[in-house]
Amino acid sequence: MSSLNQIAKMVSKKLISIEIIFCFAIGLAYFYADNLHRELIHQQDLSMDFTIYPSTIPENQLLRIDEAKKLYESAFDDGVYYGVIYPEKLIKFLKHAWQWDKNAMPYYYKLLGWKDFYDERGKEDGIMMSFDEFMRKYRDQIVDSAGNPLVEPIVFKNVEMRGYLWDKFADLKYPYFAYRKSYSYAPRWFDEQGMMPPSTDEQLEKSIEYLNYAIEGGYHCYEALTARILFQEGEHYKDQKYEQLNKLTEYRSTLKVEDLKQAIDYAQLMAEHSSIIGILRMTEAYFYGLGREQDPVKAYAWSLLSDYAKQKIIEIGNNFAWDAEQLPPVWEYNKEIQNRLEQMLTLTEKQAALDYLETLKTKVVTWNYNKWRKQIDDFHPKP
After folding, report:
1. Helix, strand, coil in percent for the chain, rounding step 5
2. Which of 140, 240, 281, 352 is a Cys-bridge partner for 267, taking CB atoms 3.0 to 4.6 Å apart?
3. Per-residue pLDDT, 160
4. Which distant-in-sequence residues (6+ apart) come within 8 Å of 99 by Cβ?
5. For residue range 325-353, what is the model confidence (pLDDT) as tens digits?
């Protein structure tokens, strides 16, 4: 039996090694694809136009963020064969990208990075049409609503324009770009010990600025936003393995009272969508009187809601509804606060907390927090 276990361990290690090598190879391939496209463009003498143009597509016909991603993924395969899946969908996608539909443009840059490197592979496999072959067959169908041929914007002919454009689009409050740019400031990396180094207040404030733009555009990135507001690391955890939780009492020393209250308002919104971190922050807020008036009864009720949520995880049988690997320190800290409250409160106060718990349960909109967190509210994209 022990020999079977040894064999199983060896196989597991082999599989992990293969997975690491595969991921490295994919990353390397994309790096070379991007550089190849860059080198090909540098061979041309192009006069770059740095103007940000509005889309010529009517506003009510522009692609939503998720819609643009799904259209790209259904039109072009960039994971296995690197070829055209559905020509009709790619035609529609190109019409949007070439007419400055801001939600389609980043995916077109992605397509360009893959198509040069894998064009020959597509021909050899013969399974899918390469992008170049697609252009030879369908170029005349890439037209505007009046049937006039579209011209690929010059910004796509130099990959170095991507960074410039993405920064400018973020500053113009396009939510996809603002969300991506928020991570350029904080947090940035883990150190050799797997710990998140503290960010400067300036870095955190810039990250907060772009996260707010993203939220205005429909993103539900409140968890990242509250972490940037509250903690110098810009994260709810101090370490990469989610073992050391940042406690609310460790909030930034420069934090203003109104910003602390706003962070707790966001935490309550998260909690009402079953965020375990959000529920914990509400427990802390009422226990310590941070961002809320100190109220041990409400603090106890919120701590009991955390216990109820834990049972919900077991009942649903789907840990992916939350981030399971992040939960143990939360349960531990919640129990610590709960034990202290149980020693403080009278029987009457505990009953009041149980009554308030029933009210809190009715305010939870969903018990699948991660699903809600990934959603993007519908809105009319700006041209």
Report:
1. 65, 5, 35
2. 281
3. 76
4. 55, 56, 57, 144, 150
5. 899 999 999 999 999 999 999 999 999 99
- Whether residue 232 contacts residue 186, with contact meaning beta carbons closer than 8 Å, is answered with no
Cβ 231 vs Cβ 252: under 8 Å: yes
Q: Is residue 164 packed enough to be buried (19+ CB in 10 Å), middle (13-18) or exposed (0-12)?
A: middle
Locate 8 and state its tokens: 């199983």
- The span from the CA of 369 to the CA of 270, in Å, is 8
Average pLDDT, rounded, for the chain: 86
Q: Is the peptide bond before 153 cis (omega within 30 degrees of 0)?
A: no
Tokens 């919900």 sit on residue? 312
Tokens of 171: 């500053």
Residues 6+ apart with CB under 8 A from 77: 83, 84, 85, 128
Structure tokens at 203: 């870095």
Strand partners, 91: none
239-253 tens-digit pLDDT: 999 999 999 999 999
* Cβ-based neighbours of 239, under 8 Å, separated by 6 or more: 190, 194, 195, 196
pLDDT at residue number 117: 63
The neighbour count for residue 188, using CB atoms within 10 Å, is 13
pLDDT of residue 120: 57
CA–CA separation, 129 vs 86, rounded Å? Answer: 9
Predicted confidence (pLDDT) at residue 7 exceeds the cutoff of 60: no
**Cα–Cα distance measured from residue 65 to residue 70, given in angstroms and rounded to the nearest whole number:** 9
Q: Quick one: how far is CA 1 from the chain centroid?
A: 44
Amino acid at 204: L
Side chain identity at 139, as an amino acid letter? R
Structure tokens at 306: 């955390």
* Farthest-apart Cα atoms in the chain, separation: 81
Helix (H, G, I), strand (E, B) or coil at 195: strand
Q: Which H or E run includes 87?
A: helix 87-98
Alpha carbon distance 304, 89 (integer Å): 50
pLDDT digits (tens, 9 = 90+) for 155-165: 898 777 888 88
Residue where the block lists tokens 């009210």: 359
